[in-house]
Structures are given as C-alpha cells and as structure tokens.
Inverse folding.
C-alpha cells in the first residue's frame, strides 16, 4: 500500500508534520519494513482524521494540538517497538533481533538483564572458538591437580601445572555449549513472553 | 490545626486521583473490548468513543501499543481500508476469541459490581 502524505495549506504545518513523522520513522527503524509502514500509516491516519474533525480554525494550531495529545513518538511508541521487536526476535531466531529486543526491553524488568548477561556469556563461547583457532596452545579448559582452573585463554599454562583436557574437542564442545545456551535463552525468552501476556 | 486539616485534605486528593487513574488504566482494555463489541472502529474513532462513553481522557498515542497487544493476544483483529481521501483507515474488530473472552470478563465484572454494591450500602 502506497503511503500518502497529508497535504497542508500552511508551510509551518507542513514542517511540523514532516518533523513529527520523521521522528516516528526514526523510533521504528529497527523493525521490519512492514511493521514500520504499519505504524507510520496508523499515526498518519490518526493525524489526518483528527484534522478533519477539528473545530480549531487555524490549521497549525489544530495540528499542534493533535500532536500534543498524541504524545512524543519516542515515548509513546517505545512499548510498541519493544513488543514488536520481541515478537520478531522469538519468531526468527536471528541473534541481532534478539540482542536488539533485549536492549529495548532492558528497562522492562530484572529478568531481561539476566537474559542480556546470558547472551553476553553466549557470545563469550563464540569468541573462544575463534581464540582456539588463533591461539591453540593458550586456549582451552585447564585443570590443575584435577581441579577446574580456567575456561578460556590462559598465559601461564604448562609451567604452572595446568593441563588442557579438551584438546581437539574444545571447538566442538564450545560449539555445542553455544548452541545449547542459544536454544535455552530463546526458549526461556518465549516462555517469558508468554507469561508477560498473562 | 488548620495546617493539619489542609494537609489531610491534599493528601486525600492525591490519593483519590492516583486511585482514579489506576482504575482507569486497569479498565481501559475492558472498555475498549466492550466498545468493539457493537461495531468496528479505526483508531481515532475509538478514542472518541472511549471519551464519549466514559469521559476518560487517554494519552492518545498509548492506544496504539495497547491495540497491538490485544492483537497479539488474538482478541482483536485489524484491517486497512482504503478511503477516497487517499489516507486509509485501520479498522479494529473483535475476534471470535475476543468475543468469548469478553463474555467472561463481563460476567466477572457484574459479580464484582454486585459485591461492591453490597459493601457500599
């Protein structure tokens, strides 16, 4: 559907309208094109209908009044963008969408902070896979006298009595941990979203 | 003495107005669903209906996130309808599940109302 702009008689109204709609676009630009257009058109329609029904004689006064009642896009659309992003994230399994959704929902509760930290941990495992390729001897799961010491990169290795136990299994192991964490986070996120609805 | 009375009066005022806004916020979804029971409306019209029926002034922009939530809950559905003006309207209506849910909500509300009436007397 083509997006039709509202036509105004006064230059000032045009500028105020364009500025407001630009802000709407900016707030929603992390969403899919379809969601962006949907929100844009709905706000556009709201302003248009409100102008039609307005009893205020002066166009610019009417428009300013409508925009004030709608509220600032940054504030009013925030929960809508956060919701839509979460919907998108849990349906696509795309890590970028998930990270963005978590960032947007960060202020919505403590649980999202835990999700965020788990996600960072997950990225840590991915990092270790690359670290193992670049520094095979310093990266691994190190034990000393049978006790866990380091999972990751360690400069002091054999001379400190550290033994790496995973060897060539390190990369596959990290890969499966990453996969496991990823499924776990996405699954719990879905459960959380489901609980939010209740 | 006068200061104390004034203080109590103003504290009460804020308490009551906070309480009122909580009630409004809590019942807004319920009101919207009931308005949509009879007819389908587009966003701006819906706001006018809310105002007409309940005299509740809502921050207009907040309606849209709320409608999106109701949509993901499968209680309402929406469709874009082209207009001669060139600016289409997004109409909202109740889904079958929305209608069923509303029956339960209305029943609960009636019971609650009866109970409250008894307490108030």
């Amino acid at each position: 559907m083509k997006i039709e702009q509202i036509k105004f008689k006064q230059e000032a109204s045009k500028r105020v309208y364009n500025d407001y709609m630009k802000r709407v676009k900016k707030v929603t630009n992390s969403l899919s094109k379809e969601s962006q257009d949907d929100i844009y058109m709905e706000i556009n329609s709201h302003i248009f209908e409100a102008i039609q029904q307005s009893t205020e004689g002066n166009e610019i006064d009417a428009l300013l009044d409508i925009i004030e009642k709608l509220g600032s896009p940054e504030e009013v659309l925030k929960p809508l963008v956060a919701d839509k992003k979460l919907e998108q994230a849990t349906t696509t399994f795309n890590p970028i969408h998930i990270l963005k959704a978590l960032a947007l929902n960060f202020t919505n509760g403590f649980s999202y902070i835990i999700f965020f930290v788990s996600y960072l941990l997950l990225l840590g495992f991915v990092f270790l896979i690359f670290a193992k390729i670049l520094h095979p001897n310093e990266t691994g799961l190190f034990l000393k006298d049978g006790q866990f010491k380091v999972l990751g990169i360690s400069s002091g290795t054999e001379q400190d009595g550290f033994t790496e136990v995973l060897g060539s299994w390190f990369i596959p192991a990290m890969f499966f941990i990453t996969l496991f964490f990823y499924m776990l986070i996405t699954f719990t996120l879905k459960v959380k979203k489901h609980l939010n609805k209740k | 003495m006068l200061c104390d009375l004034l203080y109590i009066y103003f504290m009460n005022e804020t308490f009551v107005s906070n309480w009122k806004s909580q009630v409004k916020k809590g019942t807004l979804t319920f009101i919207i669903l009931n308005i949509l029971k009879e007819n389908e409306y587009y966003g701006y019209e819906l706001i006018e209906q809310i105002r007409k029926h309940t005299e509740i002034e809502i921050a207009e922009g907040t309606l849209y996130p709320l409608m999106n939530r109701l949509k993901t809950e499968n209680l309402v559905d929406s469709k874009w309808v082209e207009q001669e003006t060139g600016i289409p309207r997004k109409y909202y209506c109740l889904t079958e599940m929305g209608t069923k849910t509303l029956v339960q909500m209305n029943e609960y509300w009636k019971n609650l109302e009866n109970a409250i009436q008894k307490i108030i007397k």
